Amino acid sequence: MKLKIQLYFYHNILTGGAKMDVMQKFKNEFFEERKDLLSKNHVYRNHINKFVNYLSLPEVQLSNAPARININIVEECIRYYHNKGELNSRSTMESQLESVKSFYDYLSETGKTTDIFSDYNYSKFKDDIVDKYSLLEPVERGSYKCEDIKIILMELDKAIDNFQNKPAGIREEERHLQRIILRLFIKLTLIAPAKRGVITSIKKSDITKDYKKLLINGIAVNIPCGLSRDLCAALKYAESKNKEPIKEEDNFFEYLYKYKGKFRVESLNTWFYNAAQDFGVMEDECKNKKTLAVEPIKNMVIQMMVDNMINPVFISKIAGLTLTMIEATYYTKDWNAKREEDINKCINKSIAQNDYYCYV
Fold first, then answer.
1. pLDDT tens digits along 279-320
2. CA angle at residue 102 from 100 to 52, to 5 degrees?
3. What own/partner pairs with CB < 8 Å and gap ≥ 24 does 170-179 have?
């Protein structure tokens, strides 16, 4: 890779191509060669322009030094625009990062420079920036119907089981892997309603060897037997494809997708949308959209915990949200505790809280 990059620069010098700043030239080539991508993601062009403009600032002067640009420079760029008042929320920051990340995917694929994001936990990097610069979190008030999520899970179970007995092409195999990962994400969110980035940052070491407990946000959460089997099956499938066992320090989701390439958290929204379309549910939610956010699954679980009168301090802990945000978002002015009158449900709910339940 280094030799290829050096040859590229020598060619530029010999042909007079070095007159324009290198990163400006790369940017123009990206805009020209990735028109399809930019037509689907209009904000990319604006954010990449801002990034390259930052590199050209007198106090930065890195537009002609791509080899010196690293992940810390990306964070400095975010800080610069944050201080100017142009970047104040998580959503804007994520949009900026996704744009720059797609730019570097192109630069890496074409041999112009290395991928500066490859050695970093992308989700953790974003969360750290949010904390460091006190960026505003989006208020996600939307949630889905429990019945719709149950239907999607049942259909995912059927589709995954049926795949085992069918010969598959590359597309079918890719869809199968997406469904395996999506099912795990949904089920993990149902037992631990944490942020998307927290769920997808789970490491092998966060799950006990018997697959009965998950450590998340400092809480040891019981894993039901069905999910335990799904985790084991997914891992066995990935190990057969990756040709090497998972390590304790490995990110679980990244390992599952490893043989296909880079796992991107944002892909879950596309896969969730595809599942809803494939199984004919959530038609209103899918209308005029190309993706379907997975975060409202967490909101649904939290709202159900609130309605079941779970201590808000406990909800705050497992969700990784401040108590103030929990109260402001889920305890609305017209909220009333829902009284459970069905004795059968009451008894079953009480039994489900016992320690042995996840072994049944």
1. 999 999 898 888 898 999 999 999 888 888 888 889 999 998
2. 30
3. 174/260, 175/274, 177/237, 177/256, 177/257, 177/260, 178/267, 178/271, 178/274, 179/271, 179/275
Max distance between CA atoms of the chain, in angstroms, equals 83
User: Token pair 């037509």 is at which residue?
Assistant: 39
Cβ count near 350 (within 10 Å): 9
167 — pLDDT class (breaks 50, 70, 90): confident
CB of 115 closer than 8 Å to CB of 107: yes
Mean per-residue pLDDT of the chain: 86
Q: Which residue has the tokens 């549910």?
A: 281
User: Could you tell me if 260 and 215 are in contact, meaning their C-beta atoms sit under 8 angstroms apart?
Assistant: no
Taking the CA atoms of the chain, what radius of gyration do you get in angstroms?
23
> Shortest CA distance to 55 belongs to which of 33, 25, 83, 35?
25
pTM greater than the 0.85 cutoff: no
Q: Which amino acid is at 66?
A: P
d(CA 124, CA 106): 23
pLDDT of 169: 83
How far apart (Å, rounded) are the C-alpha atoms in residues 249 and 234?
A: 17
* Cα gap 189→136, rounded to integer Å: 22
DSSP letter string, 192-219 = S---HHHHTT-BGGGB-TTS-EEEETTE
Contact of 294 with 311, CB cutoff 8 Å: no
DSSP class of 259:
G
User: How far apart (Å, rounded) are the C-alpha atoms in residues 11 and 237?
Assistant: 46
